[in-house]
Amino acid sequence: MTAPRLFVFGLGYTARVFADGLRAEGWRIAATCRSEEKRAALEAEGIEAFVFDRGRPLADARAALDGATHLLVSVPPDAKGDPVLDHHARELADLRTLDWAGYLSTTGVYGDTKGEWVSEAAWLKPTGDRQKRRVEAERGWLGIYRQYGVPMHLFRLAGIYGPGRSALDSVRAGEAKRVDKPGQVFCRVHVDDIATTLRASMAKPTLGAVYNVADDLPTPSHEVVEHACRLLGVEPPPLIPFDQAELSPMAASFYTDCRRVKNDRIKRQLGVTLAYPDYRAGLDAQFAAEQNA
């Protein structure tokens, strides 16, 4: 029997963790990247790779996608729209081998709820341009499901962390800040729990479904930094009021919205049990693994 084939548009941090888990089980993996150098590096690892970007669509999309049983899209929209849909919606609509497809979105589509809890049924009220583009991209991906039967599922991800991309790493790099904005909380999710959720959806597809992917404990960011410092045995950086923190425009934009994201649906419908239900569990496990390495 031929092994299933996952095609990934945009093999970034999260998609790579997901794909590597499948590859270890014998799946065939194909993915896009944005340069010939990266393509060659992926090919050397045994991953079939194709160059793709807004200004560089797949050279032969039908051949690249041929035989794909599963599709993951983690390429973000840009100012012109969703580049995958803009370039390759037709080929995806014609692809009849797909059993499952997933689009990685963001909980930012809910906008600012003043700290109230939101479920997948909440109105989408994005506050910034990046979030508004995500809403439009979601509509496009659901549209390709409704119009052409592409078996899409949407995953709205909270702030992603994990090895190499956590408070432990930012503290070690001297880049961590403790910013105090009273009442502000952030939702986050460990990358392994995202991969688990995607796997659970693949095992139990519900076409057109939307899932929030977040842990159980929305938390102020400065508390996460404090815990990382405790694990590392270092003094935490000073607590700085938000209006004095001198954040970059991008970093400051994350403080515009405050919401708590419900994750009941992935537990109830997909049977997901989070390996890291809060940031402490995630950071503790990463620290222990580093000490044992």
Question: How would you sum up this structure, described in words?
Answer:
The chain is of the alpha/beta class and 293 residues long. The chain has a domain at 5-160 and 190-214 and 260-274: NAD(P)-binding Rossmann-like Domain (Rossmann fold), CATH 3.40.50. It has eleven helices and 13 strands. β1, α1 (13-23) and β2 (28-33) form a beta-alpha-beta unit. α1 crosses α7. The two termini are 37 Å apart. 38% of the residues are buried. The model has no long low-confidence stretch (mean pLDDT 97). Keywords: NAD. This is SDR family oxidoreductase. It comes from Azospirillum cavernae. InterPro entries: NAD(P)-bd_dom_sf (IPR036291).
Strands, helices and their partners?
Layout: E1 5-9, H1 13-23, E2 28-33, H2 36-44, E3 48-51, H3 61-65, E4 70-73, H4 83-93, E5 100-106, E6 117-118, H5 129-148, E7 152-157, E8 159-161, H6 167-172, E9 178-180, E10 188-190, H7 191-203, E11 210-213, H8 221-232, E12 239-241, H9 249-253, E13 260-261, H10 264-270, H11 279-292
Helix pairs in contact: 1-7, 8-11
